[in-house]
């Protein structure tokens, strides 16, 4: 199958050919015809499968045959969870539309809003945006959706993980009802399907990669190592293996900064990219990494979304992720388009639980290799025999909320407290009717105690 057989016009085919692509990937072969037919699509696709071109190419084909975009209007809206992914998708759109009379724009937070407002005065056939900045621009009347034809939610699973569901619902509420909807996600979780119910209509469902599976061309293994020795082990691997380019994942922003400083002290050119960095710093770090000026890019999971580098040879898990699915997302940065890649994880004894979850999710025991001179003092426990993954049970419908009685705390029923009986209620009623009586506490009579005839003094107010 060729791109020409999918019904794309000559300018798009030339742009694709200039990028060196000859045959569509499985996700492209299925998604492009469905989008061209105007159908709603739900596609499960991991990073590196070519999904961006899977929706970009047919959208450009459809828009090229439509009316000219008006001022402040948008004809196709692509929502992404992070700035980096928005920028990357924007580059793809601009590349493939170079020979078409179409315009595109990218808007995200972390930079000044005024230039974006000025840009949107011309309108954009394709707008790539993060949810928060899009709402800001809409509320300032810089963006209108009267001409909107297509909505794309890219990496919808990550949007939900990052808490964008409220913003997404606000955006959906102001869009025209008559539109084409495309939803792309790594998996079709229960939460994604719940979101899809109010979004897509009779969608074509596409799933081209086994769930939670990495590309077969990626070689995976772990190095058992003590937690405090991880930076030294990483530096040793970089220098001895002569890695020219590696993407390293840490669990925290501060951890990324500390590791970058450690590597820089050893003359290993490195840069960190995470949420606390300014947009300018993140863009510069990514550009330097792509150009080869920076050898090691240290990133957190969220910031790494949108990092799209051809032939990235190594991905290193300096810290294992808390969520096993993120392991698959991480190592999906290497081994793209049939190329070979390596995924190396530095694992300490404290991360045994995370390692077990990853091995169970991917249904494979990761090989172990000790680094010479760094035998861990605290041994990493052996992997358990793999158990097959159980299918998730459908969630039980929530019980109808029971209205609480007067005087009962709202959480009493949920916490297992008994409901107030009639007797205490009547007692409270009686006390309520005697409002005119003094409410002060009666002085207690002197009572003998077990230790002597000491009397208890009445409490006095401070």
From TrEMBL:
<dbReference type="InterPro" id="IPR014001">
    <property type="entry name" value="Helicase_ATP-bd"/>
</dbReference>
<feature type="domain" description="Helicase C-terminal">
    <location>
        <begin position="217"/>
        <end position="386"/>
    </location>
</feature>
<dbReference type="InterPro" id="IPR001650">
    <property type="entry name" value="Helicase_C-like"/>
</dbReference>
<dbReference type="GO" id="GO:0016887">
    <property type="term" value="F:ATP hydrolysis activity"/>
</dbReference>
<dbReference type="InterPro" id="IPR050079">
    <property type="entry name" value="DEAD_box_RNA_helicase"/>
</dbReference>
<keyword id="KW-0547">Nucleotide-binding</keyword>
<keyword id="KW-0690">Ribosome biogenesis</keyword>
<dbReference type="GO" id="GO:0003724">
    <property type="term" value="F:RNA helicase activity"/>
</dbReference>
<dbReference type="Pfam" id="PF00270">
    <property type="entry name" value="DEAD"/>
</dbReference>
<dbReference type="GO" id="GO:0003676">
    <property type="term" value="F:nucleic acid binding"/>
</dbReference>
<dbReference type="Pfam" id="PF00271">
    <property type="entry name" value="Helicase_C"/>
</dbReference>
<feature type="short sequence motif" description="Q motif">
    <location>
        <begin position="1"/>
        <end position="29"/>
    </location>
</feature>
<dbReference type="InterPro" id="IPR000629">
    <property type="entry name" value="RNA-helicase_DEAD-box_CS"/>
</dbReference>
<dbReference type="GO" id="GO:0009266">
    <property type="term" value="P:response to temperature stimulus"/>
</dbReference>
<comment type="function">
    <text>DEAD-box RNA helicase involved in ribosome assembly. Has RNA-dependent ATPase activity and unwinds double-stranded RNA.</text>
</comment>
<protein>
    <recommendedName>
        <fullName>ATP-dependent RNA helicase RhlE</fullName>
        <ecNumber>3.6.4.13</ecNumber>
    </recommendedName>
</protein>
<comment type="similarity">
    <text>Belongs to the DEAD box helicase family. RhlE subfamily.</text>
</comment>
<feature type="compositionally biased region" description="Basic residues">
    <location>
        <begin position="389"/>
        <end position="402"/>
    </location>
</feature>
<keyword id="KW-0378">Hydrolase</keyword>
<keyword id="KW-0963">Cytoplasm</keyword>
<keyword id="KW-0347">Helicase</keyword>
<dbReference type="InterPro" id="IPR011545">
    <property type="entry name" value="DEAD/DEAH_box_helicase_dom"/>
</dbReference>
<dbReference type="InterPro" id="IPR044742">
    <property type="entry name" value="DEAD/DEAH_RhlB"/>
</dbReference>
<dbReference type="GO" id="GO:0005829">
    <property type="term" value="C:cytosol"/>
</dbReference>
<feature type="domain" description="Helicase ATP-binding">
    <location>
        <begin position="32"/>
        <end position="206"/>
    </location>
</feature>
<feature type="compositionally biased region" description="Polar residues">
    <location>
        <begin position="427"/>
        <end position="437"/>
    </location>
</feature>
<dbReference type="GO" id="GO:0042255">
    <property type="term" value="P:ribosome assembly"/>
</dbReference>
<dbReference type="InterPro" id="IPR014014">
    <property type="entry name" value="RNA_helicase_DEAD_Q_motif"/>
</dbReference>
<keyword id="KW-0067">ATP-binding</keyword>
<dbReference type="InterPro" id="IPR028622">
    <property type="entry name" value="DEAD_helicase_RhlE"/>
</dbReference>
<dbReference type="InterPro" id="IPR027417">
    <property type="entry name" value="P-loop_NTPase"/>
</dbReference>
<feature type="region of interest" description="Disordered">
    <location>
        <begin position="383"/>
        <end position="462"/>
    </location>
</feature>
<feature type="domain" description="DEAD-box RNA helicase Q">
    <location>
        <begin position="1"/>
        <end position="29"/>
    </location>
</feature>
<dbReference type="GO" id="GO:0005524">
    <property type="term" value="F:ATP binding"/>
</dbReference>
């Amino acid at each position: 199958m060729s791109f020409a057989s999918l019904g794309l016009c000559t300018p798009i085919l030339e742009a694709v050919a200039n990028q060196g692509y000859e045959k569509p990937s499985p996700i492209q072969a299925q998604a492009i015809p469905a989008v061209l037919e105007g159908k709603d699509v739900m596609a499960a696709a991991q990073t590196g499968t070519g999904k961006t071109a899977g929706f970009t190419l047919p959208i450009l084909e459809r828009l090229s045959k439509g009316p000219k975009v008006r001022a402040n209007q948008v004809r196709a809206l692509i929502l992404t969870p992070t700035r980096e992914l928005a920028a990357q998708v924007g580059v793809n759109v601009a590349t493939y539309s170079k020979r078409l009379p179409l315009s595109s724009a990218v808007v995200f937070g972390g930079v000044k809003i005024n230039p974006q407002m000025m840009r949107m005065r011309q309108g954009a056939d394709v707008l790539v945006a993060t949810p928060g900045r899009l709402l800001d621009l809409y509320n300032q009347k810089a963006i209108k959706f009267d001409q909107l034809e297509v909505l794309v939610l890219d990496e919808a699973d990550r949007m939900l993980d990052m808490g964008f569901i409220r913003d997404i619902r606000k955006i959906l509420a102001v869009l025209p009802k008559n539109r084409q909807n495309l939803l792309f996600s790594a998996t079709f979780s229960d939460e994604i399907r719940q979101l899809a119910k109010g979004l897509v209509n009779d969608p074509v469902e596409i799933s081209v990669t086994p769930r939670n599976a990495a590309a077969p061309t990626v070689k995976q293994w772990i190095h058992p190592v003590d937690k405090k020795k991880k930076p030294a082990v990483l530096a040793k691997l970089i220098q001895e293996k002569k890695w020219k380019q590696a993407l390293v994942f840490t669990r925290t922003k501060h951890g990324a900064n500390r590791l970058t400083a450690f590597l820089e002290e050893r003359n290993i050119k490195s840069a960190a990219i995470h949420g606390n960095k300014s947009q300018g710093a993140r863009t510069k770090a990514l550009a330097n990494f792509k150009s080869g000026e920076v050898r090691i890019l240290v990133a957190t999971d969220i910031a790494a979304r949108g990092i799209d580098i051809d032939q990235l040879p190594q991905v290193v898990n300096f810290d294992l992720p808390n969520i096993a699915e993120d392991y698959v997302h991480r190592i999906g940065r290497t081994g793209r388009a049939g190329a070979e890649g390596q995924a190396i994880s530095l694992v300490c004894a404290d991360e045994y639980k995370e390692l077990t979850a990853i091995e169970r999710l991917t249904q494979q025991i990761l090989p172990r290799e000790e680094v010479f001179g760094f035998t861990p003092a605290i041994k990493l426990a052996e992997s358990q025999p793999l158990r097959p993954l159980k299918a998730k049970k459908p969630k039980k419908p929530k019980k109808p909320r029971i209205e609480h009685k007067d005087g009962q705390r709202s959480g009493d029923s949920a916490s297992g407290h008994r409901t107030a009986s009639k007797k205490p209620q009547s007692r409270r009623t009686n006390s309520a009717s005697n409002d005119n009586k003094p409410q002060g506490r009666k002085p207690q009579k002197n009572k003998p105690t077990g230790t002597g005839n000491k009397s208890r003094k009445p409490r006095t107010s401070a």
